[in-house]
């Protein structure tokens, strides 16, 4: 039995994993990326392309040249390596009073997940609901609270503030202002997050370029909308959320289920956009629940999780070959690989001796938990014996790459984008723009400012351990203040 990852990574393979020269025109640059697993080849190709672009800058306008140069300097390849990542949460037990005599039990959310993602690659995390996909994505983004065991490195270094500024994170729920247009949303994000070396006109121009690149020109002047009134569509909202992160040209982009709630055509456009962003020299990681076969073909690598444990981590084009070598064959002809992987992650092993109708009836029954658990343990054991040693050796080999270490040293500078006063002006203008549909009065302005001052005093020089008490106390203070203001308004009238 020959695991698919055992071949030399420098040999050419078929499908989307082989080496090829890909030329993509992005909103920031035209990048030639040699889709080879080696980081040194990616960096050399991007540097040679940068030299070619410098010869073309003289033919562009000065403002465009300046903004492109600054944003190109912020694009540095990031190789993400994670090994034996584990995370547990404590489950509270029921008891009388404030304390309980029983000790709190711990539940393992992640257990021994490993993988490598290089610049120019799109990694998809697959698994059923509750398998730990979002937890792993949050841990890779450096946003997971608590203690995480294992190793997560970015170009061989630990997570830092400079790496945080080079990382974009798109949540599953789109957090957008409902009464702002698409152009206003991206413009305010550009004024806040782009470098202060750029002028206001250049930042606005950069927002226009992102709108054009993401295909939002048709709805650029439409309101985003919210639960109370309809605005742009779900796919357009997701692209606006991606555009907010793409404004800073991140080297590492992480997305949490960007295709949830979208139809197949819109989901394909979103994944095609992510694939194009990855081909521009970025490292893109996304969780996805149940992709179609067309979406699966766009992935370079996949990580399949089952109850927090990995059962596969490697090239997306070799996954069927790997499980067939273990004796797991899809029960149907022309089966979607993603559906096959989800069945295995749930412990549903296809039985080729049954007919298709019998398999559907058998998988629909819920009284085979022991068989499913044994199948999951078998898949986890096969991963540990076949794929895990190869991944660990690959991580150790990449950690000693001199090109990887030199790129991490180049990205260690600290830079603030805008000043405090500039951020205050932009946020104030955005708040007024969001509330332009509401009626203003002196009493309302006084009410908002007084509650804001009281809320700010609650958190002034406060200890992080007392945040929960202040969160519970703040609504009571705001309610009392509002009642006092209402009585004052009634007495004045």
UniProtKB/TrEMBL annotation:
This is ABC transporter domain-containing protein. Residues 1-22, 38-62 are annotated as: Disordered. It is found in: Membrane. Pfam families: ABC2_membrane_7 (PF19055), ABC_tran (PF00005). The keyword Transmembrane applies. SMART domains: AAA (SM00382). One of its GO terms (molecular function) is ATP hydrolysis activity. Keywords: ATP-binding, Membrane, Nucleotide-binding, Transmembrane, Transmembrane helix, Transport. It comes from Salix udensis. It is a multi-pass membrane protein. Residues 8-21, 38-50 have a biased composition (Low complexity).
């Amino acid at each position: 039995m020959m695991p698919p990852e055992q071949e030399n990574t420098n040999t050419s393979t078929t499908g989307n994993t082989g080496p090829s020269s890909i030329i993509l025109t992005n909103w920031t640059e035209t990048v030639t990326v040699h889709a080879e697993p080696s980081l040194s080849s990616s960096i050399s190709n991007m540097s040679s392309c940068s030299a070619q672009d410098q010869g073309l800058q003289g033919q562009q306008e000065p403002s465009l040249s300046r903004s492109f140069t600054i944003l190109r300097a912020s694009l540095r390849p990031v190789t993400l390596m994670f090994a034996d990542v584990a995370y547990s949460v404590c489950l509270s037990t029921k008891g009388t009073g404030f304390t309980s005599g029983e000790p709190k039990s711990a539940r393992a959310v992640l257990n021994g997940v490993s993988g490598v993602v290089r610049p120019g690659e799109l990694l998809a995390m697959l698994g059923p609901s509750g398998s730990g996909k979002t937890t792993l994505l949050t841990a890779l983004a450096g946003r997971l609270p608590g203690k995480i065991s294992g190793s997560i490195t970015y170009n061989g270094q630990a997570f830092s503030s400079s790496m945080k500024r080079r990382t974009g994170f798109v949540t599953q729920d789109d957090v957008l202002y409902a009464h702002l247009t698409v152009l206003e949303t991206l413009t305010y994000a550009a004024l806040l997050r782009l470098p202060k070396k750029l002028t206001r006109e250049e930042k606005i121009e950069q927002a226009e370029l992102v709108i054009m690149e993401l295909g939002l020109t048709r709805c650029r002047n439409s309101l985003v909308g919210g639960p109370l009134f309809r605005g742009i569509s779900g796919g357009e909202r997701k692209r606006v959320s991606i555009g907010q992160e793409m404004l800073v040209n991140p080297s590492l982009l992480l997305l949490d289920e960007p295709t949830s709630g979208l139809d197949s055509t819109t989901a394909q456009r979103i994944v095609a956009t992510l694939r194009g962003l990855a081909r521009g020299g970025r490292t893109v990681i996304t969780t996805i629940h149940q992709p179609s076969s067309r979406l699966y073909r766009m992935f370079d690598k996949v990580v399949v999780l089952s109850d927090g444990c990995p059962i596969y981590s490697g090239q997306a084009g070799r996954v069927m070959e790997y499980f067939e070598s273990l004796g797991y064959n899809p029960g149907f002809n022309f089966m979607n690989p993603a559906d096959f992987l989800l069945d295995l992650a749930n412990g549903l092993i296809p039985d080729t001796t049954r007919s298709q109708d019998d398999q559907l009836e058998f998988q629909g029954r819920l009284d085979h938990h022991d068989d499913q658990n044994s199948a999951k343990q078998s898949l986890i054991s096969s991963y540990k014996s076949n794929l895990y040693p190869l991944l660990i050796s690959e991580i150790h080999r990449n950690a000693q790459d001199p090109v990887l270490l030199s790129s991490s040293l180049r990205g260690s500078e600290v830079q603030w984008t805008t000043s405090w006063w500039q951020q205050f002006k932009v946020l104030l203008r955005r708040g007024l723009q969001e509330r332009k549909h509401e009626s203003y009065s002196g009493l309302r302005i006084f009410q908002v400012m007084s509650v804001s001052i009281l809320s700010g005093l609650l958190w002034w020089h406060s200890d992080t351990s007392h945040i929960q008490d202040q969160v519970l106390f703040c609504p009571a203070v705001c309610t009392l203040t509002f009642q006092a203001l209402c009585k004052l308004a009634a007495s004045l009238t």
